[in-house]
Each structure stands twice: as C-alpha cells, then as structure tokens.
Design goal:
Layout (H helix, E strand, L loop, with lengths): L4 E5 L3 H13 L3 E2 L6 H11 L3 E5 L8 H12 L3 E5 L4 H8 L6 E3 L4 H30 L1 E6 L2 E6 L3 E7 L2 E6 L4 E4 L3 H5 L6 E5 L2 E4 L3 E4 L3 E4 L2 E4 L5 H7 L4
Parallel strand pairs: 1-2, 1-3, 3-4, 4-5
Antiparallel strand pairs: 6-7, 8-9, 8-12, 9-10, 11-12, 13-14, 14-15
Length: 240
C-alpha cells in the first residue's frame, strides 16, 4: 500500500524540517517543505500530495488560508492548519475554509499523528458519502407534476411508451406516469439499463424476462421489438 504523501508549508525552516523528520518516523512520505504560497502551489501542482500541513502565517502577502482556498477549489485533499496563534480572529478566518484540523504550536508527535489519521478518516468518509449521493442522483429522474417535480428512481421503471407528444412511464408498483416529452428527450437522461427496442418503447433490461423474435416480455407484458432496434437489445444482454 502506498504511503500517504504529505506536504508541509512552514516558513520557519527548522520547524518544517523537524515536522518532516517526525512524519518520516511515523511512516509517512514527505515532500520538500514549502516556505510560502508560491512554493506550495508549485509543489501541489507537481507532486499531488495526499495531505498538507499549512502554517497560517507565512512570509509574504499570501497566507496558509490562501493556499487552503486553492486546495478546496481546485485539488480537494485534506489539510490541517498549524499556528502559534489560537486567538478567536485567527480561528474564525481558518474556519471559513473548512480545514480538516487545527494544531496549535508547539504540538507533540502523538498530536501530529492523531491529527493526520482523524483528518484522513473523516475526509474518506465524507468523500464516500458524496460519491454515494452522486450515484443516487445519477439514477433518478425528476418529472414535472402540478407545478412541482416528483423524483422517480430508475430501478422503479419497467418501461416507457411513446404516446404522441407524451411519454408514459410504467413502474413496478403498477403506477403509470405521463410526462410531456419525447422518448428521444428522455433516453438521454437514463442510464445504461435502458434500451430502446422500438420507436415507441424503451425498456429497463433489469426486468426483461423473455425475448422472442418480435417481442420482449416484462412482467407478463409483451412489447414489440422493431427490426431497426433488434441489435440494440442483442448488444446489451448475454446470449448462450
């Protein structure tokens, strides 16, 4: 398993070297420390760290908070602030960029280790949650209904049928929804489980029970397979 790659941004060289030495003793991979905003951003772009310790007060106009803003907007990896100042004003500035931790100097080897592991753990959990939410959003469709929008989960859809300027959506709970949109409009919003088998029908192959020469069976309903679309169906199922 690859070691966690850590960047230390600290303008006091001796402190930066001591932190890096301690991190190596703890089993982490450390990059060459950066002493200001410019060096930090170049290292981030070039070496892509997994984690960073950012001193809030750096020499130069830009601070560790400016680096944190760039990490949040462009790179998205966890970071912990280092500071000798624990006053309320500094803390409020730091909180605005949502750090994954905050260490007040001087700190112990144990505090350094704990801050990394907790930050990495929480960041991983949050990232997994976001990925799960994105996956859910990618598998839903919002249908306009009476001035609002109702969410339909793709797995609840059996098939869709064209009805002139409308599309009928048949669900596994035996309900049918009607939306003012064409099949062409809707299929671009569906996932890979949906296949067009006829100019008037799209099916969810998860519920495909049987295929005949000219028909597909879903929940005891026979749907026509158009010659033009036959290959679409063959391409997405396993035939023996």
């Amino acid at each position: 398993m690859a070691k966690t790659k850590i960047l230390v941004v600290e303008d006091e060289i001796l402190i930066a070297d001591n932190i890096c030495k301690t991190l190596k003793e703890l089993g982490y991979d450390t990059l060459e420390p950066a002493i200001n905003y410019t060096e930090a951003m170049l290292t981030i772009q070039k070496d892509e760290p997994d984690f960073a310790f950012l001193d809030i007060n750096l020499s130069g106009k830009k601070t560790g908070i400016d680096i944190a803003k760039q990490i949040r907007s462009l790179y998205n990896f966890p970071f912990v602030f280092l500071t000798a100042n624990s006053d309320l004003a500094t803390l409020n500035l730091a909180k605005e960029v949502l750090p994954n931790g905050y260490l007040v100097k001087p700190f112990s080897k144990e505090e350094l280790f704990t801050s990394i592991e907790i930050a990495l753990h929480n960041f991983s959990k949050e990232k997994a949650k976001i990925n799960e939410e994105e996956a859910i959003n990618k598998n839903t469709l919002f249908i306009k209904d009476k001035g609002g929008y109702n969410k339909i989960i793709f797995d609840d859809i059996l098939y869709l049928k064209s009805a002139h300027v409308y599309t009928e959506i048949f669900q596994k709970n035996d309900q049918k929804l009607v939306v003012r949109a064409s099949l062409n409009d809707i299929i671009s919003k569906l996932n890979e489980d949906f296949v067009r088998i006829h100019r008037s029908y799209i099916i969810n192959i998860k519920y495909l029970d049987q295929i005949r020469t000219n028909t597909a069976k879903i929940k005891n309903v026979l749907l026509p397979i158009g010659k033009k679309y036959n290959q679409n169906l063959v391409n997405v199922i396993d035939l023996l």
